[in-house]
Protein: N-terminal methionine N(alpha)-acetyltransferase NatE
Organism: Nesidiocoris tenuis
Amino acid sequence: MTRSRIELGDVTPHNIKQLKKLNTVVFPVSYNEKFYKDVLEVGELAKLAYYNDIVVGAVCCRVDTSENSRRLYIMTLGCLSPYRRLGVGSTMVEHVLNHVRKDGHYDNVYLHVQVNNTGAIDFYKKFGFEIHETKKHYYKRIEPADAHVLQKNLRTAIPNGIAPCTQIEKSQNEKNHHDSKHNDKHNDKRA
Ligand SMILES: CC(C)(COP(=O)(O)OP(=O)(O)OC[C@H]1O[C@@H](n2cnc3c(N)ncnc32)[C@H](O)[C@@H]1OP(=O)(O)O)[C@@H](O)C(=O)NCCC(=O)NCCS
């Protein structure tokens, strides 16, 4: 018996209809012509996933350079339900993470998920994504309308750009920690 094969392939004008069909089946939100036009321009940031030569999944991302940072936004990443839990989603996330690591100039990777999509949340947590914030009424036409922003940071935060934690900074950090605890208590009282 031959082993099951998962492969990724480019999105091209010849197969873009397969991507549209797949996204329509997998996501409750529909994407417009501009979305698909842009997807044809992003190279490695959009891929179809094949399971034994059948299209079963796709990932579409874009670069977000707003807010003084360079971030990769996963617009869609999905797999047809009969082919889930076979490693297709992981192959797509790993492709995206390898791409940003190789590039070396991204601050983070992020995406939105409906707050009740626990399967996707568990899936992304496996790859080091965390719930960064929750946006109320993010979706206009679906329920629940609230979305979590899942984010994986690619840079380690260095206070003041100074890497080693000197003794002076350490004691300052301890003081800040103490102060913030104090503030928390204060806030608790107000809540
Ligand atoms: C989320 C999604 C892409 C995962 O794809 P997948 O091909 O099933 O993922 P994998 O097989 O690579 O799963 C890897 C691991 O993630 C975790 N995981 C995946 N789906 C999960 C679920 N429904 N519940 C809990 N954990 C899950 C598991 O640990 C899994 O490993 P295991 O099967 O060995 O236990 C898929 O469920 C999907 O297409 N969902 C609909 C679209 C969507 O919600 N996309 C997210 C927003 S962009």
Remarks:
- The first helix runs from residue 16 to 26.
- Residues 26, 74, 76-79, 84-90, 111, 113, 117, 119-120, 122-123, 126 surround coenzyme A (CB under 6 Å).
- The chain has a mean pLDDT of 86.
- Helices lie at 16-26, 33-39, 88-103, 118-125, 167-190.
